Amino acid sequence: MFLAWRELVFARARFGLMSGVVALIAILVVLLSGLSSGLVNDGVSGLQRLPVTAFAFAEGTKTDSAFSRSTVNVSQAEAWKGRPDVGDAAPFGNMLVNAKATTAAGTQVPIDLALFGVEPGSFLAPAVSDGAKLGDPDGIVVSQTVLDEGLALGDTVVIDRLGTRLKVIGTTGDQRTFGHVDVAYLPLRAWQQVHAGAGPGDEAREGAYEEATAIALRARDGSRIDLAGGDAAAGTTSMTLEDSFSASPGYSAETSTLTLIQVFLYAISALVVGTFFTVWTIQRKHELAVIRAMGASTGYLMRDTMIQATVILAGSTAVGFLAGVGGGTLLTTTAMPFALEAGPLVLAALLLVGLGLAGAAAAVGRIVRVDPLAALGGQR
Amino acid sequence: MTTSSTSPRPGYRRDRAEQERGGLLVEGVTLSLGDGDATVTALDDVHLDVAPGEFVAIVGPSGSGKSSLLAVAGALTTPDSGRVLLDGVDISRASAREKARHRRERIGFVFQSGNLIPALTALDQLRFALDVAGRRAGDGYDPRELLDRVGMGHRARHRPHQLSGGERQRVGIARALVTRPAVLLVDEPTAALDRARSDDIVTLLAAETHEANVATIMVTHDHDVLHHCDRVLSMVDGRLSE
């Protein structure tokens, strides 16, 4: 520590430059983390907030298109309910629609909605922070983001082409979106009618009122659902809630792209730090030889360098994260899908520091090879 | 300057019991460098005895083995054969870890041009040497007093690039002595200095050798400073002679 701190002060321009690069990477990591969390929220927050352990889709359904292609019979829920590890099972309808909302002021606003058809009173029915619970045949409970776009309780939403009129009767009070589209809960029967393409006053085709997208499953407390066994009994293909996220439109592509960028950033950070300390060690080769000739152990020298790396990484990461969070806070007020969440940010900071230290450790391994004999002679 | 004509071998002055009690004893050391046809005998059956408080100069042409002798005596390298006794302890066969411990606790190096750490002030150079040795200023070690003694007290807060060559060398001497080593190994201390400053530095080395009662070996090309030494040995082709 004696030498480490004094070298940091003495070579402050060099270390400052290095810290600046790490801080910029940290800002980028924060912004990407926020964007990643924002996209996850936009993509699957509607699913995340369902009290669901797994979904049972139609037999043979592929993950990437499960919610748009699957159709199950509501009676299949009974087969799942009979399973000992299943606490609750209920039909769940999911579809995306284009609509127009008519505000109290009489203006029409185009709006896209992800319709979640659930049985009022079932475990899937949403808690309401404002307004009425789900129950009216044409009443919908919407994500708070719908109200943020200018709609209000009591406004009417008309589904394009069908002309089905739905009334906003309540809000969940939080963000619930699916595939970047705001969620609106409606009674399963209303959902079945829309899903079947039946307009107001039309009778839906035969069997339409027996259909749903999937059976939503909730595990009994302390149990783990035997999905394979349930599938065999109910004739479904089930997947956990987390696996079903990939069925949200664009979710896999977006998250994997952002994850890849973040992984590259971590790798770049580790490489930048490693390269800096490699050059730093090479430049100090003669000085290190003198110090080793004085009797300093390899551990003493490596500890000193790792302290420098820790100070640089921790300091610049903290500065970068503060700046990133500051900038990110401004972004949360825009339409951009951006969310600052403590968990991913702490993980990102730890990864940035940890991988940077790994890069530094790999670089300072050169200290082991510095021969104290090089201190003798006239190199300086 | 005195030379011995009574020693049984070139480089020996004291009797066996005295040699094993204190100071530095190099006994029949041989060191080869390089491999195969390129092998060079850097040290050839070298015997050297330096008593505590004795200032020995070794002169010789470049490549004669002077630096190799410092390397062996300073536990920087292991000889092919022979022994190096430091205060009676054989350090020649010690492990790398033990050699490092001997260097930080019992050996002081003065390098060409001082070889000071650029980031440290003159005072911190001494404190750093204590830190490396696991000692603390105040526990009987007084870096400031030592800096005053070598005439550098007024430059305590200056870094190496703010010091002249002679000043850097003075700080280097103080740094080597601050841990109170048994042996001081000095590598061409006047190589980058003019004649007057060279004389000052070697005068200081001689005084500190006697004051600190340290066994000092100085390797040098500079014949003008040899009159400050207690003994002068010459080295040619790896062999030491009076």
From TrEMBL, chain A:
Keyword annotations from UniProtKB, A to Z: Cell membrane, Membrane, Transmembrane, Transmembrane helix, Transport
Q: Which residues cross the membrane?
A: 263-282, 311-333, 345-364
Q: Name one Pfam family in it.
A: FtsX
User: What topology does the record note for this protein and the membrane?
Assistant: Multi-pass membrane protein
Q: Where in the cell is it found?
A: Cell membrane
Say yes or no: keyword Lipoprotein present.
Answer: no
Gene Ontology terms, cellular component aspect?
Answer: plasma membrane
InterPro entries according to UniProt: ABC-4/HrtB_transporter (IPR051125), ABC3_permease_C (IPR003838)
ABC3 transporter permease C-terminal domain location is 263-372
Could you identify this protein by its name? Answer: Putative ABC transport system permease protein
Q: What is the lineage of its organism?
A: Bacteria, Bacillati, Actinomycetota, Actinomycetes, Streptosporangiales
TrEMBL record, chain B:
One GO cellular component this record assigns the protein to is: plasma membrane
Q: Which PROSITE patterns does the record cross-reference, listed alphabetically?
A: ABC_TRANSPORTER_1, ABC_TRANSPORTER_2
Q: Give the InterPro entries listed for this entry.
A: AAA+_ATPase, ABC_transporter-like_ATP-bd, ABC_transporter-like_CS, ABC_transpr_LolD-like, MacB-like_ATP-bd, P-loop_NTPase
| Region called Disordered, residue ranges | 1-20
Q: Which UniProt keywords apply?
A: ATP-binding, Nucleotide-binding, Transport
Domain ABC transporter, by residue range, is 24-242
Q: Give any GO molecular function from the UniProt entry.
A: transmembrane transporter activity
The protein's name is Putative ABC transport system ATP-binding protein
